[in-house]
Design a protein that fits this description.
The protein is an all-beta fold and about 280 residues long. It contains one helix and 25 strands. The radius of gyration is 29 Å and the shape is elongated.
């Protein structure tokens, strides 16, 4: 008997899980990465739970032939028997071919089982075809996020936060550099180094932009460049970058600064000045 497969894919930060309930209450879960890098090893996890009241035997996952997603050690998982209430789990490594084309690919596999009616009589085997989607990319993904104000004005300070996340692998010898425009200064370091950053563990730094004291009459855009260099798991050096464009505008009559200060015309009230002092002034 051939069963139709209805797939539920539950995404996580870097993986998805295909879940399917087979005949007799057999729950199958296949956890796989949503993306893989060319010429790298990926791991796919298989879990079978017998939530029915009858035993199952001759349970197999058979991997279809592929020139792109290639099993490292075995072409199938074979389970002799899972009693009612029992479960079985295993992980299998696959290599992504070095000449694989970029884009969406599928690992095709066949699941089969034999149900034991009343835990004694073997029924005809049932098979289900499952397609595991894998997006193949040419290099690891390092994402750069920035948090900045929408606009800047003169003679003030503003926070500039950068967060980097390596989505696919651990990376080493990481350098994070912020390159501001020539007329902008930074309070804090513009070059940060990290020995290593673990996969999917965000690292963030915050510096402060110091804008020029000279007033301006028109607004214009100023670019900030963020450059990240790192060594990947293959020992290759990579560079990712992002350009952030902020608006430099004239200061209005009243402005609130990010640290709680207030500009009223040409008069600045620092955040630590008390209300009594302001009234006295």
């Amino acid at each position: 008997m051939i069963l139709l497969l209805f797939i539920v894919i539950i995404p996580t930060a870097d993986a998805a899980t295909i879940k399917q309930t087979m005949e007799g209450g057999m729950d199958v879960a296949i956890a796989h990465p949503d993306a893989a890098v060319i010429d790298r090893i990926i791991t796919i996890s298989f879990l079978v739970k017998n939530n029915g009241w009858e035993d199952k035997q001759d349970i197999t996952f058979t991997f279809g032939p592929s020139n792109v997603i290639i099993s490292v050690e075995k072409d199938s998982i074979q389970i002799e028997k899972i009693a009612a209430g029992g479960s079985y789990g295993e992980t299998v490594d696959f290599r992504i071919a070095s000449d694989a084309s970029l884009g969406s690919h599928f690992l095709n596999l066949e699941y089969s089982q034999v149900l034991l009616a009343n835990n004694e009589e073997a029924q005809p085997p049932t098979q289900t075809n499952i397609a595991v989607p894998i997006l193949i990319i040419d290099r690891p993904r390092v994402t750069i996020h920035t948090a900045t104000p929408e606009s800047l004005f003169t003679n003030a300070e503003f926070s500039f936060t950068v967060e980097i996340i390596s989505e696919d692998i651990d990376i080493n010898d990481v350098k994070l550099e912020i390159i501001p425009p020539q007329d902008i200064n930074f309070r804090g370091e513009t070059l940060h180094t990290f020995t290593s950053i673990q996969k999917n563990v965000p690292i963030s730094i915050t510096s402060r932009i110091i804008t020029p004291s000279q007033e301006i009459n028109t607004q214009y855009n100023i670019p900030f460049q963020v450059i990240v260099t790192y060594t990947d798991d293959a020992g290759q050096e990579n560079t990712d970058s992002k350009t952030v464009s902020l608006i430099m505008r004239p200061r209005t009559f009243m402005e609130l600064t990010t640290d709680g200060g207030i500009w009223i015309g040409d008069f600045f009230i620092a955040p630590y000045v008390s209300l009594g002092t302001i009234i006295g002034i």
